[in-house]
């Protein structure tokens, strides 16, 4: 029995020993597998990861770390991440997905790291942004002269607005002019105060030109606000078109005003050419009677040009160019002025002041001739009339305009009666209407001939009444501006004509 018990104990001890060995073997194999996995992971890691996790093993060489010293194709080490200054945070842009920096105290945002030093980068002008900002800050501080100039402009603008609102009646405005007449008078007075009588051709001073352009801009501000509804075609997003009503500056204003302002600039350019560098002309003061003898003009107050004879070729060419430009402006301004006045309403009080019979104005013979004769016969009659000066021309034009109005009123009344009468009486009314229409047309035609032949003639009583009683601000401004430009162009042309006469070169005027 003892031998059996001893054999059993030996078997149990052997089994226990084998179990311990197996557990140790299993544990060592697990550790070996984990080490193998870690080694595989290290081999698969990218070179950048190796650089970010430095090895402490002294046995590992630089080649095994992926670092090749002196190799130009190697990747440089990553820059050290700078810490954010206090108060800054990193945010992600929703649209681009990029990071940007936000200052929680000031709300400022920027793409650049706030810890980087700001370099003074030059812009297109060659000046850094910081220097430019400092310069703007310095320039932004007005000096005493700037403040005084701005205060004067503000004072002038206040006075201008007061005149417009009160209609030049500073007692309260109850007896003031209409806004249209106020602007018309303001433009006329501004031209007289700026240019005066224009005694000679010379460059206009910079201060004078600036004053004129500034104040004429003020006077034209109300005109540019006159709008009408006009149909325009609008393209929809789907490509279809639709007609809509849109506000636009009135057609006559947007057409005539830019042309008149362009003429104004051209007149300044013409006068600026009479200087030492371009057209060198000397002038001397005239005495009463001197202009009449020298040039056939009675404007003794106008200075006399001193021109070398014969004219140099370049001087003649410059004068020819100035004459052509002045004539173009003169004809354009006159045409616009006549067109604007023709669209003004004839005042009722003016119509009521006219006599009932045209013979009371021009006589029976002339009245009968205009109603019975042809247009050619009327022109022959006009050519035989002795015309002395512009005032007589203006009086004759006014007479023709008045009888045209009388006959036009009678024509309208005759046509109205003709529509209400019996058929048997129509023949008599038709004859009267034909005579009245012929007489009206002949009178207007002769008035137009006189106006074209004598453009220097002043405005007639009818035209003055139309301007005074007109209530359309746009028409008043266009009429006044075209009138003052016509007057300035006429004065310039008169000086050019005297220069050509003094130089014995009248052929320049006809070219």
From TrEMBL:
GO terms for molecular function: guanyl-nucleotide exchange factor activity. CDD domains: WW. It comes from the Eukaryota. Residues 144-511 form the PRONE domain. Pfam families: PRONE (PF03759), WW (PF00397). Residues 20-45 have a biased composition (Acidic residues). Gene3D superfamilies: 2.20.70.10, PRONE domain, subdomain 1, PRONE domain, subdomain 2. Residues 1-63 are annotated as: Disordered. PANTHER family: ROP GUANINE NUCLEOTIDE EXCHANGE FACTOR 1. This is WW domain-containing protein.
């Amino acid at each position: 029995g003892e031998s059996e018990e001893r054999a059993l104990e030996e078997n149990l001890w052997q089994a226990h020993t084998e179990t311990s060995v197996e557990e140790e073997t299993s544990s060592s194999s697990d550790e070996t597998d984990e080490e193998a996995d870690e080694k595989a992971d290290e081999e698969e890691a990218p070179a950048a990861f190796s650089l970010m996790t430095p090895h402490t093993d002294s046995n590992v060489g630089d080649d095994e770390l992926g670092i090749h010293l002196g190799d130009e194709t190697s990747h440089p080490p990553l820059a050290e991440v700078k810490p954010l200054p206090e108060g800054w945070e990193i945010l992600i842009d929703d649209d681009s997905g990029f990071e940007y920096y936000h200052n929680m105290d000031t709300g400022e945002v920027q793409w650049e790291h706030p810890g980087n030093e700001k370099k003074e980068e030059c812009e297109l002008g060659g000046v850094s942004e910081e220097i430019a900002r400092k310069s703007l800050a310095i320039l932004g501080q007005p000096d005493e002269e700037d403040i005084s100039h701005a205060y004067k402009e503000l004072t002038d603008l206040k006075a201008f607005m007061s005149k417009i609102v009160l209609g030049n009646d500073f007692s309260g405005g109850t007896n003031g002019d209409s806004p249209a007449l106020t602007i018309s008078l303001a433009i006329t007075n501004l031209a007289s105060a700026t240019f005066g009588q224009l005694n000679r051709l010379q460059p206009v001073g910079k201060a004078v030109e600036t004053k004129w352009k500034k104040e004429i801009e003020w006077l034209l501000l109300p005109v540019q606000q006159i709008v009408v509804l006009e149909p325009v075609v609008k393209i929809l997003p789907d490509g279809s078109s639709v007609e809509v009503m849109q506000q636009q500056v009135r057609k006559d204003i947007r057409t005539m005003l830019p042309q008149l302002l362009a003429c104004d600039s051209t007149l300044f350019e013409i006068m600026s050419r009479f200087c030492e560098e371009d057209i060198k002309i000397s002038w001397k003061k005239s005495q009463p009677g001197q202009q009449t003898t020298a040039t056939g003009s009675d404007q003794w107050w106008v200075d006399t040009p001193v021109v070398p004879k014969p004219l140099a070729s370049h001087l003649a060419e410059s004068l020819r160019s100035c004459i052509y430009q002045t004539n173009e402006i003169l004809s354009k301004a006159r045409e616009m002025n006549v067109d604007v006045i023709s669209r003004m309403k004839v005042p009722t009080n003016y119509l009521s002041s006219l006599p009932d019979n045209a013979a009371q104005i021009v006589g029976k013979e002339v009245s009968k001739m205009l109603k019975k004769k042809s247009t050619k016969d009327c022109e022959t009659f006009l050519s035989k009339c002795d015309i002395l000066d512009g005032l007589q021309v203006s009086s004759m034009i006014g007479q023709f305009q008045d009888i045209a109005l009388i006959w036009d009123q009678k024509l309208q009344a005759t046509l109205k009666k003709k529509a209400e009468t019996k058929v048997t009486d129509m023949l008599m009314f038709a004859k009267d209407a034909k005579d009245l229409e012929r007489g009206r047309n002949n009178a207007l035609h002769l008035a137009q001939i006189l106006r074209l032949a004598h453009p220097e003639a002043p405005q007639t009583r009818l035209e003055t009444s139309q301007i005074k009683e007109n209530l359309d601000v746009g028409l008043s401004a266009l009429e006044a501006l075209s009138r003052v430009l016509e007057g300035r162009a006429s004065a310039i042309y008169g000086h050019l004509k005297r220069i050509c006469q003094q130089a014995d070169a009248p052929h320049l005027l006809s070219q």
